[in-house]
Amino acid sequence: MQQTWSRSIARVAALVALCALARVVAAEEALPALGEAVAGGETWKTDVYYENDTHVRGADYTGRSVGLSKFRNTLQLETDRKLSGGWAFHGILRGTFDGAYVLNDTHFGNKAGGPVELQNSAGPAAAAAGVPLPPAYAQGMVPQGGGIGHTFVAGAFGLSNNAFVDSYANNPNSGMIVLGQNWHATAQGGVEFGVPVRPCDTDSRGCRDFGGYGNEDLQQLEAPEFNNRLDVLREAYVKKTIDLDDTRSLFLKVGKQQVVWGRTDLFRVLDVINPVDYSRNNIYDELQDIRIPMWIAQGEYRMGGSEGLQERNLQVVWNFDKFRPNNLGQCGQPNVILDASCFFRGMANLWDNGGTVANFANFSQSGAGPWFATNFGAHQIGIRNVNLPDWKLDNTQLGLKFEGVTQGGTSFSLNALSYRSQLPSLHSINGAATNPFLGVPGNLPGGPAVARLIAFDVYYPRVNLLGGSLDLQWESAKAAVRLEGAFTQGEEFANSLRDQLFSRNPVFRSVIGIDRPTFIPWINPNRTTLISGQLFFQHIFQHESQQGLYGTVGMPDWENNEIGTLLIKAFLNNDRLSPQLIIAHDFQADATALSPQVDWIFSDDLKFSFGANVKVQGGISNWKADDCRSCNPYPPFTTYPGQTVGSAGLSGLEPLGIFRAGPIGAAWRENEVYVSLRYKF
Amino acid sequence: MHKTYFKVMAAAFFAAGASLAAQAATDADVESTFSPYKGGFPSFPGLSAGMVINKANADQFKDALAAGTYKLLKDGMFELKVGATTDFALSSGYIEATRKNLNKAKLGARTGELEGYVAGRPFPEEPKLDDPHAGDKLAWNYKYGVNWGDNAQINPFYWKYRNMATGQVERTIKFDFHFLNIKHRVKDAPVPEVTPNPANLYRGIYVHVQEPQDLKNTQLLIQRYEDDQKLDDAYLYLGFQRRVRRLSTGQATDAFLGADLMIEDFEGYNGRVSDMKWTYKGTKNVLLPMWNHNDLKLAGDMPKEADGYQYVNFGGQGGCFFEGTWQLRKAYVLEAVPVNPNHPISKRVMYMDAQLQNINGAEEIYDRKGELWKTFSVGKSHADHHLALNKGAGIGIDDAFSVVDLQARHCTTGQFRGEVEFKSNPPQMFQVQYMRGGD
Predict the structure, then answer these.
(1) What domain range includes position B103?
(2) pLDDT digit string (tens) for B265-280?
(3) I want to staple A556 with a disulfide (CB 3.0 to 4.6 A). Which of A99, A298, A584, A659 is the partner?
(4) Neighboring chain B residues of A411 at a CB cutoff of 8 Å
């Protein structure tokens, strides 16, 4: 504790010192020259900002009030300078320190989590049926480590070489939560396991580098920009326009930067060149602040007009940076989109150390249960490796965009991008894992190859995207209309019908957005209120889903889904006071986010925001998906009566219900109020 | 019956002939429109250069004041310093183009239709009250006026949002504005048109916000079509979104970035001719803010520019009024009533300087209920008494503006540093792609 405080105080002191230095720099504009400055005395133009963003979260599903979920202090320095030869430099340094990990360490820091209890629904039933069980196994809830293990299996089935375990020296029942406990009821007959939640320097269990997240220590969680990818250097690029004649030019921009495609707010269809850091504030921060800048070279040939088009532009984007995926947050952080990384961390821990899985081993030979909590050993189930693409030419990402404006004023773009998926794809390693019944990999001699085993390696597959966008005026409606669409090939989805538990499916996404400034006299008779609506649509081609023995088998993702968003933003007091309401509704998940906010510009240098973020849902009963406990990788041990091939379809909210709940549904118990201030020195 | 019909037709024929004859402008009209003071400067009883008009003596000069200016004076909001009337000679290229293309421009069947226009002032003849199209013609003269010339930038351009009651400067926005005539160019190469121009655009306005933090890198692009029936295309690049958004038509008639003026207010009127019903209400001599920038006592509280340029000072109630001199000018009173009944204003009354044929020296904007809502006034400097670069530009250089919201008791003021030249306003700047090249 003393050490933690000391370290935090030291870090705050360092930030304060940096702040003071930056302020001096801003005042003096005396940074050393970058290269050769232009003649005429052009100097650095530097702005320094401080921002505090404080969020307080209500009770999660356990009923415990979460409290402080963000106390983030950001210092940002933006600098520009004209260089010789027509080049210009732009740089942004950003450092943050989030005090929530120390100030609320029982939820997000070194004291987070605790011992967990996992459902063992077969315990009481088996005891009642007279099965000679050790008393510990007869309980309806058992602690991590309290499931049926080696001794029980050996005794009950004569499998003396089985690799189930009786206890966990390396996986104690502490510092854990039950997977999903923050957003749904547990112990409802589904599959669950304990997930370590403390920072990785305190508890290294399940820590994996998923490409910038997943293995962070407390310091890295508190101050995420100070990492080995030097995220503190948020942007640094040079740019230049080379005029070819009055209307044609070449534009070059090289360095660490964001490249924004598309015309969509909140959700991304074409805007996929930069990965996104969802750990900062889920999907609710401006994309500018959560896109992860990459080292990119972009060139544009701005061709001007032609006989048919008023403007033409050809853009080439080469992302030559080492691959980075979206940051989904690390389990134990306040923002863990889709709760995905809790599943990842729990699974990685299961692979490394083994662990108890609730309601896994069937007792009644029926799809209706009950099931015993089961003690898996290491290297049997879980996540083994995360295969991050190395830096090599083949792994770089290339985009091409043609953009034009027609004679009638319609703007459009045609886009093509070859990139790496920014979301992880889990491939079952099947026969490479230890069969716990036999103590060795593989099935019994003469048996089928191991299939649909919940032991995975993580990959980031290459995805090819073709898309386009356009916007136009809708004069009679006094509105602007935005359209965007993209077709991808190479995206991978969980699929319990496939032996490796994933399939590669083409996907079409589109969005239509309408922006209409509208006079609403009771809000402001002299200034319009912006009403902006968007409707996203996603279709997964070759979607696979079918009825199994006990439930639906296949892909948990919806074949078709729509998300609607509505922004109502008013402007008062000469735009210095701006209340707004954002509503987002996921139609299939039947989950809604409501986010009222008021921005108050106190002065040109000081701005406050107050708001709340509330989610409601009505569809949780539809979120259950095949949890693969009946995937039957090791027949006959895992075969249900009547089961032939493939999963029998036993389902639960974990682990794949998140794909049906979506980012709004999975966060429906993360309701917050917040206040932020931003000051420019 | 037939006899009556014949008489009516004959009368109509002769009336039309008389009208056509009246429309035919002459070289004398050209001379008169560009040199209205050749025969001497106007005068008003009791008015002389150097005097001050204020609340106490406003009534004496009421007939030499725009109605809005009179109200501001009468309410004691500022004091008006009178200067000598001076000749604001326009660029010879524009005058020559007017002469060369005399009588080529014809009004179409509907407001917003103009045929045969090539360059210069389309209707140099003196407007007549009995000409039902006189207002339309003045509107066209404004649209194709010399305005900011073929190309110009205002950089920097400071806007201040002020509370009139307290004088508090609530916001300061630092812009750069750029203007380019894509067609009908008369002075700077390329003349007469920037090509290729397949969409047949007439003009572009590009706006970039340099400060403050929350608006930094916001950019606005307005593309105006030669065909007045076509809506402007307008795009907004929001720095915090890093994305170009198309503006819907409604946003042109909305407060721009919280200021007291709309996009439609830029330069006095920044919309289509066809969006308004134009009425010429008469000619009168009125005091308009026009001066020699270098002769003014300039602001000491503004940032110093590297070339030593200083901005026009502001004073009066709430600091809402520029401290330049006003001179007696021949002006056409022009009224514009929106065609769209849902337009946020009910009418504009503009005092168009007869020589420059700009409309923003004094302008009154009425709300939907018909009550005076805002006064808008742009003070102009003679180009030869401004930055050395502007010498000989032959336009009135917009030098300071004041928009006063009389109902909200709030104002927005503007301080210009205008440069009339091509280099800082390349055609690429007026393309959508240019906005995406920002930070």
Answers:
(1) 2-39+86-143
(2) 999 999 999 999 999 9
(3) A659
(4) 235, 244, 246, 432
